[in-house]
Design goal:
Blueprint: E1 8-12, H1 16-29, E2 34-39, H2 42-52, E3 56-60, H3 68-78, E4 87-92, H4 95-102, E5 108-111, H5 116-132, H6 141-151, E6 169-174, E7 177-182, E8 188-191, E9 196-200, E10 203-207, H7 211-217, E11 223-227, E12 230-233, E13 237-242, E14 248-252, E15 259-261
Parallel strand pairs: 1-2, 1-3, 3-4, 4-5
Antiparallel strand pairs: 6-7, 8-9, 8-12, 9-10, 11-12, 13-14, 14-15
Helix pairs in contact: 1-5, 2-3, 3-6
């Protein structure tokens, strides 16, 4: 970040009083920070981030439209290649989940309601990261962040990985027919707005379940995340091709089209 340019930030918080409090406290403890926008939902937060390209994002974990985790995923995928990704500070009311996760993470968290003392500590960490990081984030930083965040952000109604029936055969709909698909036969899972598309070499079918819930239930360790909405069977990957912009796409056995790899997971396919 050029020293002549003040750092910038976007705040995403759906509770107006908390958003105003955080803005006021930041003005006190980090007066050189320029807040370029405040969003009250995840969709607006994404729009503000990609429009203003801030250095820091303060994201409430639970918001309408998109959660803070989902905002971070979308922003990371769509961020320009020639700019370092923003540093994410997540705002949460769930300290029993957040504290152990974030103490080992390369980002910070704030418990609601934020205090000046805690925010001052967070600002110190952010200033240090902004001063130290290069023009681009280190390989794997965003992937590690996403994995930590997904671990503490299981959606309501999801099944715990240590509880409930584990799925070996997926019952997926194709029109009026229900296909019985062994998990081992699945090439990849692709999340859509309301469903998960289950892709096999012989066709595709839909499951009315979130991708995170499905992945927590299936009995397999072969699937890896390559995009915020795609899990692929690692044993089916034939090759990864890098384009001139540094983005990877996968050739997958049994799939006639390439699979896009988001920048957050591109490091998985760099040569050893």
């Amino acid at each position: 970040m050029p020293p002549s340019r003040p750092p910038t930030a976007v705040i995403a918080e759906d509770e107006p009083v908390l958003a105003r409090t955080l803005t006021r406290l930041l003005e006190q403890v980090w007066p050189e920070l320029r807040i370029v926008g405040v969003a009250d939902d995840g969709l607006r937060a994404t729009e503000l981030a990609l429009g203003s390209l801030p250095d820091v994002m303060f994201l409430d974990i639970k918001m309408p439209g998109r959660t803070g985790i989902e905002v971070a995923e979308v922003v990371a995928d769509d961020w320009p290649d020639d700019r370092a990704e923003p540093l994410f500070v997540f705002i949460t009311a769930y300290d029993n989940f957040a504290i152990p996760a974030f103490e080992r993470a390369a980002v910070d968290y704030l418990l609601k309601p934020a205090t000046a003392e805690r925010l001052l500590h967070s600002v110190g960490r952010l200033k240090s990261r902004l001063a130290q990081r290069a023009a681009a984030p280190q390989a794997g930083d965003m992937a590690a962040l996403m994995q930590r965040m997904q671990a503490i952000a299981r959606p309501e109604g999801a099944i715990d990985t240590d509880a409930g029936e584990r799925i070996k055969v997926i019952r997926a709909g194709v029109g009026n027919t229900v296909r019985m698909i062994p998990v081992a036969d699945v090439v990849c899972f692709e999340a859509t707005e309301k469903y998960v598309n289950v892709v096999t070499p012989t066709g595709e079918a839909l499951v009315r379940m979130s991708l995170r819930e499905l992945m927590a239930r299936i009995e397999s360790t072969e699937f890896i995340q390559v995009h915020r909405s795609v899990m692929v069977n690692s044993s089916a990957i034939v090759s990864a091709t890098r384009d001139e912009n540094g983005h990877y796409s996968l050739s997958v056995r049994g799939l006639q089209r390439p699979l896009k790899v988001s920048r957050a997971f591109g490091h998985l396919f760099r040569p050893m």
